[in-house]
Amino acid sequence: MLTMAGRMAQLGTESAFEVLARAKALEAEGRSIINLGIGQPDFATPAHIVEAGRKALADGHHGYTPANGILPLREAVAADLHSRHNVTVSPDQVLAVPGGKVTMFFAMMMFGEPGAEIIYPNPGFPIYESVIRFSGATPIAMPLYEEAGFSFNAEEVLAKITPRTRLIILNSPANPTGGAVPRRELDRLARGLEDHPHVAILSDEIYGEMVYDGAEHVSLLTYPALRERVILLDGWSKTYAMTGWRLGYGVWPESLFAAAERLAINCHSCVNAATQYAGIAALTGPKEPSRKMVAAFAERRRYIVDALNSLPGVRCATPGGAFYAFPNIGGTGFDSRTLQGRLLDETGVATISGTSFGALGEGYLRFSYAASLAALEEAVERIRGWLGRQDNARAKRA
Ligand code: PLP
Fold it and tell me: Which atom of ligand 1 approaches the CA of 322 most closely?
């Protein structure tokens, strides 16, 4: 009989991968599936980036690199942050890691332990709550409000801070809601956090370059009073359609960098060398492919928000960023999990139950609109037909 460590029972998961498996199984049975469940761009990595990775392999970049990443990559990150946010970051604070997730795992393992509290967005990326629990810390939910465009309320968040709070996790633009926190709300939170110098801040800005009209992405790095405590999480997965390359980075305060690098050395040694060269090409090369992709998302967003709002029992706030819509489905009479399952089984449309992103996601479904307009239209019409049939059946029973 094998005995695993008790903490393994605390580890959650990302049910997008389970929905993907079920969708694939249905597809294998010959069903027509429209997958709006998975959170990755439906675009190929731009050709010049692929070419840089290929060339790096051909040029013999086959060995280990420094654990923190090759210097030109870290310099490119620092230059990119300067051009996007007008902030100065030393390449020595940049830790290249295999994907965005690694920075969040490291931050939570660094600060989480029994007795510690970590504040995290709910509904939010499911890995936050999962790894907080895994670390032994107590997860403290930061509620996000539909009526506020899925922003938090700064006063409410600040009131949750106790002497045990070690870390607060922010994510804007957000998964799963698409919410982008308005500058004034972030200003209020930042000002309040100045009074709590024992709290570190993990700012997950992986969707930072996907914001749409009116919305704004404000980086936590732009608050000088907090710079000594902000860990920035960013990466290439979304902006450059590079989810499978596994490349991300953290910008760590000087006081935490050595500990983060030590976690990297214990865990993965370094990022795949060729991928790092591809990452340089992404940051220093033409940005047109990324811009085109974001323009396509903007068009799809316009369509899907209107279309979802036209469905009976569904109400959809306009998301400020990322590529997710998070409609309120309370009026359909179904709970989120049931609706997710029945839509997949009975219409072939894969979505993700809001409860996969935390208890406060009940009453919502996540739609990824990283899919063609034609696929989105077909999905909405299938759902409209299905909802209509449920209404008819209900009317007959009444
Ligand atoms: N942070 C958020 C909010 C995400 O939605 C994701 C991916 O879905 C990640 C981080 C992780 O990205 P990566 O695939 O680069 O690990």
Answer: 5
Does the pLDDT of residue 209 top 80, yes or no? Answer: yes
Query: What spacing in Å lies between the alpha carbon of 197 and ligand 1's midpoint?
Result: 27
| CA 87 / ligand 1 centre spacing (Å) | 23
| Residues listed for the chain | 398
Q: Count how many Cα atoms sit within 13 Å of the Cα of residue 113 in the half-sphere of its side chain.
A: 2
CA distances from 102 to 76, 110, 224, 248 (A): 20, 12, 25, 8
Pick the CATH number of 63-284 from 3.30.470.10, 3.40.640.10, 3.40.50.720, 1.10.150.20: 3.40.640.10
259-290 in b/e form (b: 16+ CB < 10 A) is ebbebbeeeeebbbbbbbbbbbbbbbbeeebb
Q: Which CATH class is domain 6-44+288-391?
A: alpha beta
Report the C-alpha gap between 143 and 292 in whole angstroms: 33
Which residue ranges have their beta carbon within 6 Å of ligand 1? 39, 99-101, 125, 171, 175, 204, 206, 235, 237, 243, 248
pTM of the full structure: 0.96
| DSSP secondary structure letter of residue 211 | B
Q: Does 398 score more than 80 pLDDT?
A: no
Atom of ligand 1 nearest to the CA of 101: 16
Note the pLDDT tens digit of each residue in 290-334.
999 999 999 999 999 999 999 999 999 999 999 999 999 999 999
**CATH 3.90.1150.10 boundaries in the chain:** 6-44+288-391
DSSP string, 181-202: --HHHHHHHHHHHTT-TT-EEE
Radius of gyration of the chain from its Cα atoms, rounded to whole angstroms: 21
Residue with tokens 């997958």: 35
Determine the Cα–Cα distance for residues 224 and 182; give it in Å rounded to an integer.
Answer: 18
Which part of the chain is CATH 3.40.640.10? 63-284
